[in-house]
Amino acid sequence: MNPKHVAYSILDLALVSEGQTLKATFNNALKLAQEAESFGYKRFWLAEHHNAENIGSSATSVLIGYVAQGTKTINVGSGGIMLPNHSPLIIAEQFGTLGTLYPNRIDLGLGRAPGTDKETAEAIRTDFMQAAHAFPKEVNKIQTYFSAANDEAKVRATVAEGVHVPLYILGSSTDSAHLAAKKGLPYAFASHFATAHLWDAMAIYRKEFQPSKTLDQPYMMAGVNVIIADTDEEAERLATSLIRMIVGIFTGRRAKVQPPTDMTNDLKDIMRNPQVHQMLKYSFIGSKATVKAQIKEFLDQTKADELIAVTHLYDIEARIHSYKRLAEIMNELQ
Description:
alpha/beta; TIM Barrel; eight-stranded parallel β-barrel
């Protein structure tokens, strides 16, 4: 048994499946959030990505509003807003507005990566690298704009002042671990794809953590890939869509999510590729019993305060089924 209560949440990219319209994709994101709410998930986060035809969460704050409008209790937020792409003032205004419309339910997760390729990052913002290096200062600006004490400043985000929108620092390397610890903010690590730095990042964050108005002690969230089906064989079959997505990332051909197929020797070989194997290290694929044992081991090892699950599947009903089983696992483990 896990000695403490571990929250469980969802990171969604509004995946666009082959043969599916964008409207259907957005409707499915809302449907998943509504189901997740009934399953006891703590939060539903949407990730900012650009120039990828298989990802629909480009206008992240707009989609957060759509999901928040169609749900009642679950936290909805960004996992994350890639702050170097944006003006901190505009983000404060957007999330201040969301926080006013949906009180105590909006999260603002902030990352420093572009969420896209180099050319698109430059198209978004020509001084992207400068903005990325200024990430700590940009986070400070966000905090200032949300502060009620900023009401005498010359530059204000008036719709954000005093609005309760918690900040989270996202990371896929060790850089953001130092920042999250220094600022006393919750830290979410992208271990669902950036597996190599998980242990170092956690150690840095916990060792350097400084209590703040937000947190008395560290709060660590860890991302994992989860695919649960009725049998190990069916889960393996469903995972073929994920494997093809990973191939698309490595080859630069980001096609829409493909329907699952039988697991072939070629796909098994891809899974054994060192880069792919490393990237999918924290991927729990199988029946409920299989995945339960894997998740228990992961939680025992990491002592994470919250698990944030990513389930890249072609079919929305298969995704909902997987997330339902994961909720059962999390409740059985504590």
